[in-house]
TrEMBL record:
InterPro entries: ADH-like_N, CAD-like, GroES-like_sf. It comes from the Eukaryota. Belongs to the zinc-containing alcohol dehydrogenase family. Keywords: Metal-binding, Oxidoreductase, Zinc. This is Cinnamyl alcohol dehydrogenase. Residues 1-71 form the Alcohol dehydrogenase-like N-terminal domain. GO terms for molecular function: metal ion binding; oxidoreductase activity, acting on the CH-OH group of donors, NAD or NADP as acceptor.
């Protein structure tokens, strides 16, 4: 659980200051059938919140992270 400190221009569900929780998946390709069907857990390119890397190559650190970037 954490607090939103910054949002991108396309974010509509959250605002700075909101208290949020993050699940085990923090990203996906958004283009495959599972992603388009809102079942991202089946995406072959999903990004786990722990022991994985973001698309920019930075490691995900799960609950040990000081901050993290996630999709809404």
């Amino acid at each position: 659980v954490g607090e939103v400190v910054e949002v991108g221009s396309d974010v509509t569900k959250f605002k700075v200051g909101d208290v949020v929780g993050v699940g085990v998946i923090v990203g996906s390709c958004k283009n495959c059938h599972p992603c388009k069907s809102e079942i991202e857990q089946y995406c072959n390119k999903k990004i786990w919140s722990y022991n994985d890397v973001y698309t920019d190559g930075k490691p995900t650190q799960g609950g040990f992270a000081e901050s993290m970037v996630v999709d809404q």
